Amino acid sequence: MAAVRFSVLVLLLVQQVFAVYRDCSDFDSLKNCNECIRCGGHWCNDPNEEQRCTTMRYDNWCTGKQEKLKFLTNVDEDGTFVQPKYRVRTLTIGMDDRFDISYPSKSKEPKVEIVVNTTQTSNFQVSNKTSCYDSTCTTTIKANPETNFCAANGGISEYFHVKLSVEGIKEEVVTKFHVPCACACSAKVEERSPVCNGRGSLSCGVCTCNEGWKGAFCETPICEVKRGDVPCTDSSRDNIECSGNGVCGPCDKCECFTDREGSRYFDKDNYCADICMTINDCDDCFLNPIPGRCQTCHFALFRQNYNETLMTQKDDFNRHVWVRCNGSIDECYYEYAAMRDEYDETFFMVTKSCDPVQERRAGAVSLTLPIVLGVIALVVAAAATVGYMMWKNRPPPVPMADPMYQNIDAEDCTGENPLYKPPTSSFKNPTYGKW
Ligand SMILES: *[C@@H]1O[C@H](CO)[C@@H](O)[C@H](O)[C@H]1NC(C)=O
Ligand SMILES: *[C@@H]1O[C@H](CO)[C@@H](O)[C@H](O)[C@H]1NC(C)=O
Ligand SMILES: *[C@@H]1O[C@H](CO)[C@@H](O)[C@H](O)[C@H]1NC(C)=O
Ligand SMILES: *[C@@H]1O[C@H](CO)[C@@H](O)[C@H](O)[C@H]1NC(C)=O
C-alpha cells in the first residue's frame, strides 16, 4: 500500500499548518470572485448588484448573472465487497458530505484506516463512525473543506482524496472531493471595458481601474494636484476658465480642444493657453527685427523671416504647424505666425507690421514673388471670412514668477482665469504691468 504517498490522519480538525489568511467574516468586503467562493460564498457578476458576495442567496439576487462554479458529475461505483468503491463529489467550501460505506465484517469493531491527499492545503475535515449489525458494518464518512482550504494559487478544479481501508478487505474505498477554488470568470478579462467607462478592465463584473480613476465603474478621477487658484468647475464658464480653448474636465482641470487650429499647442496645465498668448508674453521680441533667438524672452523664442511655404505645413492630425496670431504693441499692429517644435522652442515670423523695417522683412518673399503674395492674400482673406483664425488678441499669460500672478490669492480671487481677458485690440492691458 502506498503509505508513503499518503499522510495518515486520525482527525483533520482545524489544520493550521498550511493556513491561508483569509477574512471570511465580512462577505461585503470580499470584492473578488475567487476570494468569495474560497470563503464559501456565492458571487454575482452583475456590476450593478450591490451585494456581490453572499452566503445566503435571496430572491431576486443577481438574476441570471450568478457565477457558476465547475461541478463534476457525481460518480458512485459499487465494488465486490464494499459499497461504494469509488465516488466523486463536488463540494464547495463549508459544504458537508456524508455517506455510508457498507461491507461484510466478522468483527464488531473492524479496524478502519483513513488516508488523505490533496492538491491544496490540508484544511478539511474528515471523520468516521462505524456501526455493525449482523456481520455487516457501515462506516459513515463526513468530509468538508474549510474556508482556508484553498491556497492562493487555487484553480477551478482542486481536489482532496479520502481513501478508506478496512482490515481484512482488499478493496479500498476512494472518494474524490472536487473543490472549486477559483471562478471561471477570473480568467476572462475585458480590457478598457465600456462598463468601466473605458478606464479599466472588467473581470467577474468588477472593474480594475487604470491609474488616476476609481469607483465601481472607474467614474471618479483621482485628483492629486488641484488647481489652487481658479478651479475649473463651472461648465457654464468653460470658455472663460479655459481660454476659449477647452472645457472644464475632471479634477478641476481644463480639457483642451484637440481638433482646432492651433490646438496642438493648447497648454492643458495653463488654462489651455494657445501659442499666441504665450508669445505675447515676450512682446519685446517683436521690436527687434533681427532673426534669431530673442534674448529678452524667458523661454526659447526665435524670430525668423517670413516663409510662405511653411504656412502649409500640417502635422499627423492634419493640423497646421504654423498658427496665425495678431496683436498690437504701442499702437503698432502686427500679424505673425508661430509654431513650437519638439524641443519646446518657439518660432515666430512677422507677416504684417506697421513698422516699415519689419514690414520689409515680412514682405521679403513678396518682393521676389509678387504672384505668390497675391495668392497668400487670397488665402488669408478666405480664411478670415470663414472664421478660420480664432486667435484673438489676448493679453499675455503671466509667468509664475510675476508678482501680479502671486497677488491672485483667495480674497481677491474673482474666479476668473487670470490669463483670459475678452479680446481687446491692444496689448496694453492694465493688469499687465510691463508697459
Ligand atoms: C491521491 O489519492 C488518489 C486516490 O488514491 C490517487 O489517485 C492520487 O494519485 C493521489 N495523488 C497524489 C498526488 O498522491
Ligand atoms: C475513524 O474512527 C475510529 C474509530 O472510532 C477513530 O479512532 C478514528 O480517529 C477515526 N478516523 C477519522 C479520520 O476520523
Ligand atoms: C521656406 O521653407 C521651406 C521649407 O522648410 C524651404 O525649403 C525653403 O527654402 C524656405 N524658403 C526660403 C526663402 O527660405
Ligand atoms: C486678429 O485676428 C482676428 C482673427 O484672426 C481678427 O478677428 C481680429 O480682428 C484681428 N485683430 C485686429 C486688431 O485686427
UniProtKB/TrEMBL annotation:
Cellular compartments per GO CC: cell surface; focal adhesion; integrin complex
Highest taxon of the lineage: Eukaryota
Subcellular localization(s) per the UniProt record: Membrane
Domain named Integrin beta epidermal growth factor-like: residues: 185-213
Major subcellular location class: membrane
Signal peptide positions (record): 1-19
GO molecular function: integrin binding
Entry membrane topology: Single-pass type I membrane protein
Ranges that cross the membrane: 367-391
Gene3D superfamilies according to UniProt: Integrin beta subunit, cytoplasmic domain, ntegrin, alpha v. Chain A, domain 3
A Pfam family of this chain: I-EGF_1
Region of interest (Disordered), residue spans: 416-435
GO biological process, one term: cell adhesion mediated by integrin
Keywords: Disulfide bond, EGF-like domain, Glycoprotein, Integrin, Membrane, Repeat, Signal, Transmembrane, Transmembrane helix
Family according to the record: Belongs to the integrin beta chain family.
UniProt name for this protein: Integrin beta pat-3-like
Lineage, top ranks: Eukaryota, Metazoa, Ecdysozoa, Arthropoda, Hexapoda
